[in-house]
Automatic annotation (TrEMBL):
Keywords: Membrane, Transmembrane, Transmembrane helix. The chain crosses the membrane at residues 12-34, 54-75, 82-104. It comes from the Bacteria. It comes from Kangiella koreensis (strain DSM 16069 / JCM 12317 / KCTC 12182 / SW-125). This is Uncharacterized protein.
Amino acid sequence: MEQLKHSGLGITTFVLGLIAPIGLIITIIMAAVAEASSYGGMDPSSSEAMVIGLFLILFVILALIAVGIGIGALVQKGYKKIFPILGVVFSSVVLVITIALMVIGANAGY
């Protein structure tokens, strides 16, 4: 039986799937520090709030790209599937957490 190799798409999905949650966690920590360091909280129109928002958008887009590439890697024949599966799972977790944070923020009542 022929040994299956890892596909380049699968490895890419896995790497992007690792970068997205790590980046999301770092961005959330940055937001918490910025909120706690200002008296009365962070100003929503400040430059640091905009940078934090841009990073959140960047990591969500990165997770969406990883899911798309991962689905493409999963349908390839003749390659191992572990990296695409892990990448899609990690990226999906990022998307679910982001959606949950949006729902919590929308229902916060501010």
